Amino acid sequence: MEAESTKRFWYAMTLLILLLITICILKVSECSRQNLERKFFAEQRQLALNTLRKDYVFDILIFTQHWPYTVCAQWEERHKGNECNLPKIKNSWAIHGVWPTKYHTIGPLFCNDTWEFDIKNIEPIEDEMKESWINIEKGTPLYGLWKHEWEKHGTCAATQIVAMNSEFSYFNSGLRLFDEFSITKIFQQSYIKAGMSYKLEEIHEVLNRSLGNNFAIVCEKDHVTKEQLLFEIRICLDKQLNLHSCDGIVMRTNEFRNSEEIVTNCKKDQDIVYPSYNWLIKKQWNRNIEEQHAQNKTWMYNVVNVYKLMKLIQWITL
Ligand SMILES: *[C@@H]1O[C@H](CO)[C@@H](O)[C@H](O)[C@H]1NC(C)=O
Ligand SMILES: *[C@@H]1O[C@H](CO)[C@@H](O)[C@H](O)[C@H]1NC(C)=O
Ligand SMILES: *[C@@H]1O[C@H](CO)[C@@H](O)[C@H](O)[C@H]1NC(C)=O
């Protein structure tokens, strides 16, 4: 009798230890994902520091406009609870940045550490910036996007582009480029409408009519709907701010293949969704329902498990 209950005791202890080990493993795998993200940003920083030690020479400027509803969907996907600032004017593209670029590489970046962003310098154009160069990622510092763009890219442009030789002229030039090469207008004057899907060639053909073949089309994958979304149009310019071929630029994702003459990371054999405001609202709605389901499930799951554990302990100790 005595021997039987010691056996049961050790059996219970073994189970408990196994349970603890499982919990530890789950925790560690979550941490390693966060570490991967941290590593990615550290690498970006290192890349920047490497370019700092070399020179700030670059070949072209990439003027990037992004589609707010895709930016928002990606931001919300990245972390639970993320919300967006969207431009007041619906169906309007927004500026992401103006990036000095050397062929076959990224950057140069962070060319002048001592030239810090100061909001006072752009007060005259702040209202226009708030609409056209809006920081969609709500919850990040108010001027975070502008500070980041200035310190990472603007300080490099300022070294070689006369029209961008100060913080004010850098951002003001960005706004003027936004008027001159408006993706909003180009699409409005074509059959490309938000809320529909298109072939890569269709989008390229429409843009090519206004811009010549001097742009890159960037897509992002939506991990919930599994669609590929139109994300950015990057326009290439020479140092006099005239249109220039994008051949030789690096795309952020490694899916990039220079398919004939279309510079893109989008998959050629899959339609490109150009999401509308309603598309975004619908996705947010579905996401809320799913989160509720998931919460209810884990709640139920925990109750059931505690019950099972109690039963087990009861069985062992009685
Ligand atoms: C770096 O910025 C400072 C202003 O903070 C400026 O005086 C200096 O000339 C800049 N250096 C270069 C190399 O552009
Ligand atoms: C793009 O436009 C140029 C004229 O600007 C034309 O020569 C070229 O064939 C067009 N490319 C495509 C793929 O339509
Ligand atoms: C989750 O549970 C609550 C009650 O606990 C219920 O009102 C709600 O409808 C449930 N949500 C879903 C999506 O099942």
From TrEMBL:
One of its GO terms (biological process) is RNA catabolic process. Residues 1-31 form the signal peptide. It comes from the Eukaryota. GO terms for cellular component: extracellular region. Keywords: Disulfide bond, Signal. The active site is at H96, E149, H153. Gene3D superfamilies: Ribonuclease T2-like. SUPFAM superfamilies: Ribonuclease Rh-like. InterPro entries: Ribonuclease_T2_eukaryotic (IPR033697), RNase_T2-like (IPR001568), RNase_T2-like_sf (IPR036430), RNase_T2_His_AS_2 (IPR033130). One of its GO terms (molecular function) is ribonuclease T2 activity. Belongs to the RNase T2 family. This is Uncharacterized protein. It comes from Polypedilum vanderplanki. The lineage of its organism: Eukaryota, Metazoa, Ecdysozoa, Arthropoda, Hexapoda.
